[in-house]
Amino acid sequence: MKTLTHGPAHPARRARHRGMLLGLAAMAAGAAWAEHGAQAASPGAAQQVRVIRAPEEIVSRQRLPQFVGISDETAGARGLSMNLVVIPPGAAAEPHTHADYESAVYVLEGRVETRYGEGLKQSVITEAGDFLFIPPNVPHQPVNLSSTEPARAIVARNDAREQEHVIPYDPAAASAAGGAQGAADRAE
Fold first, then answer.
1. Structural element, H or E, at residue 156
2. What angle do CA 139, 178, 183 make, to 5 degrees?
3. Is 20 helix (H, G, I), strand (E, B) or coil?
4. Does 2.60.120.10 match the CATH number of domain 11-36+60-173?
5. Cα–Cα dist 38/103, whole Å
6. Which helix (H) or strand (E) covers residue 183, if one does?
7. What is the C-alpha separation between 13 and 23, in angstroms, rounded?
8. What contacts 158, CB < 8 A, 6 or more positions away?
């Protein structure tokens, strides 16, 4: 009987991950070009290919370690950001929304439960090799399901200044407001 290795340490899986990551980067860059290509192609506009090496770790507004790869500040991007996000073992991001922009996530390592929607009452689980799409303005909170290993993901967004547009979200207040509204609707 042949045993298949499905962990990210397997060479074929690592190669697939790299290929998928490059595909994600190309799709995101293509979307940014389509949206901002007219501006970038204007006569006299300086176009440079930039390499961002080993970015410095910051703590994001979501309270997670993040390595900003592509942004307006690091690369002069106008409509795209791409970062490496790390969720430490057993940790979770602060609940939040992203004002008017989409997020695409590619999980490199780990298992993550993403709670989302009003009151964060819905959830999905992603693991290494999965893609996740988060529409604009959807409250969400990623949670690392491992108590011993970090989770890592590449996150691309169609906002080059995305950290400036992160909005904290209080699920308890949202649930209370929804509950109060529901009671008012029933009373009518």
1. strand 151-157
2. 170
3. helix
4. yes
5. 23
6. helix 171-187
7. 15
8. 28, 31, 32, 35, 79, 80, 101, 102
26: helix, coil or strand?
helix
Q: What is each CA distance from 175 to 29, 98, 167, 181, in whole angstroms? A: 37, 19, 17, 10
**Distance (Å, whole) CA 23 – CA 129:** 13
d(CA 46, CA 34): 18
Each residue's pLDDT, cut to its tens digit, for the chain (188 residues) gives: 433 334 444 444 444 554 544 444 444 444 433 343 333 433 434 578 888 887 677 666 666 767 778 888 888 888 888 989 999 999 999 998 888 889 999 999 999 999 999 999 999 999 999 999 999 999 999 999 999 999 999 999 887 566 566 788 888 887 776 654 444 444 44
The residue extents of the domains of the chain are 11-36+60-173
Rounded to 5 degrees, what angle do the CA atoms 168, 36, 61 make? 15
Cα–Cα distance for residue pair 179/160, rounded to 1 Å: 36
Structure tokens at 130: 């999965």
Secondary structure letter of residue 32 according to DSSP: H
**Rounded alpha-carbon distances, angstroms, from residue 80 to 77, 89, 94, 149, 170:** 6, 28, 23, 29, 27
